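Closing statement on the iron/sulfur cluster sub-project.
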Amino acid sequence: MTAKVLNNILVKPAGPDCNLDCLYCFYKNKPELFPETGRPRMSEFLLEVMIRQIVEPPGGEVSIGWQGGEPTLMGLPFYRKAVELEERFGAGKIVGNGLQTNGLLIDRQWARFFREFRFLIGLSIDGPEHVQFLHPGRVKLVFWVPEMTSAET
Ligand code: SF4
């Protein structure tokens, strides 16, 4: 058997932790997986080891999907470090980043960062009643950040 190189990686750096508490959340009971802490957070050491393992193997492209819970709970410096490590260990490889968020913490600093590093953003929101009725759960919007920041002054 020939091993296939993984080029799409899903990472949950804050585990199931979230700053919302949606009734329908499928992740509700997952904190029980982390009985020692209610706030699981990926360490900088683990981030470096992980990024290195993802981007160093040969291959043209790799993409990392940052999800949760709510991945922005890690804070912006965590993602600045992540892209720095991607550039350091990627040696010219194309590394794409996507992030799924509920948007609560997103401000202009985050938006500028997402735009600068071309993050693909998925924004989950509760829609108006008629949309929610058709699609129970959260409505997901996916877009590139330049659109999100085009109204920036
Ligand atoms: S925003 Fe998402 S992860 Fe957070 S509680 Fe709601 S459904 Fe769960």
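The chain has a mean pLDDT of 84. With this model delivered, the sub-project is considered complete and its resources will be redirected to Aim 3.
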